Amino acid sequence: xxxxxxxxxxxxxxxxxxxxxxxxxxxxxxxxxxxxxxxxxxxxxxxxxxxxxxxxxxxxxxxxxxxxxxxxxxxxxxxxxxxxxxxxxxxxxxxxxxxxxxxxxxxxxxxxxxxxxxxxxxxxxxx
Length: 127
Prior knowledge:
catalytic activity, 127 residues, Histidine_triad_HIT, 3 helices, alpha+beta, Histidine triad (HIT) family protein, HIT-like_sf, 5 strands, HIT family, subunit A
């Protein structure tokens, strides 16, 4: 199934400069900025500059350069913030929601980086 990308989503508008953001790092293919409703002391959003709806869309259709840049940029931000366990930090969680069941709110692929406090279990149990 092909993905239909909505060029009016909020992240597309941020990338076009129509909506301001608190940029942490920008590269040729990736933008990292602070979430406007942070859930942790460090809550960042990592987005590709290309028009991808969710993780599997990005993984299947992005160029190798885009994929490498996205992940290396995320790693660089974690190191710069001092949250990477490999650099002595206390760690972080990455989250990427895809589709309705995962409650994806913005139809542009994005990865949350959450850090700065203990995060608890990954999912709460629903009986």
